[in-house]
Specification:
It is a single chain. The protein has a domain at 53-107. It is 66% helix and 0% strand. The chain contains five helices and no strands. Pfam families: RP-C_C (PF11800).
Length: 107
């Protein structure tokens, strides 16, 4: 259970080590709702996010995070996949969600 914490020369080295540890764990962990590991599912989702473009992907992730934290979305991964499917069909309208948030309406 307890592990010796390695020492790091700087924050970048720590971040690199953390990333490697997370990726190793993802590869070992079965995804709860989809076939394959968490790493397998992430590869599919990552490529979909890349196709959205940096700004749209960032906006989508921000909305999913906010909705999850507010208790409006219980499965953020599934919600994000739904958004990506809508984007692929030309039916994703993030501006409506942001307008609703800015005007105080539930979006």
């Amino acid at each position: 259970m307890w592990q010796v914490m390695p020492t790091f020369s700087d924050l970048d080295a720590l971040n690199l080590w953390l990333e490697e540890q997370c990726k190793a764990l993802w590869a070992e962990t079965a995804h709860g709702g989809l076939p394959g590991s968490v790493a397998d599912v992430w590869e599919v989702e990552k490529s979909s996010l890349i196709r959205l473009g940096k700004q749209v992907a960032t906006a989508a992730l921000t909305l999913v995070f906010e909705k999850h934290c507010a208790g409006k979305v219980s499965s953020p991964g599934s919600y994000l996949r739904g958004m990506m499917e809508k984007a692929g069909a030309g039916e994703l309208h993030l501006e409506r969600s942001f307008y609703g948030k800015l005007s105080g309406q539930a979006a």
